[in-house]
Amino acid sequence: MRFNRSVAMVIVLFIVLGIAIIDGSSILFGKWQLSDAADAAAIDAAVAYESSKSLDEAKQVAQATLDDRMDGAKVVKLTENDDGSVKIVVTKTASTIFVKRLGATEDWGHLRVESTASRPTA
120 pLDDT exceeds 80? Predict the structure, then answer.
């Protein structure tokens, strides 16, 4: 009987570790993907802002870029810097199994990335 409990505990331990690895990987890769998408959105927003001088229009362009690149990503802030570049803040909730469902770890799945870009020169 003792052997069966030990085997069951080892199996449960492997399952919990496996889920932790999957959730951690989802958060890590989500952050990398969000960073890439935010960089692209910041460049597009900088180009739009250069031509229109409208932060609202630039934010719409940035959101459209995010929509094309990553589901669920949102532009929460877009500002102009003193040098004419734009700074964008983007958020997304990572797709996790347990992290987003547990109160103590829920914030770990909320991804936030900042990116700054100027209009590219040819």
Answer: no
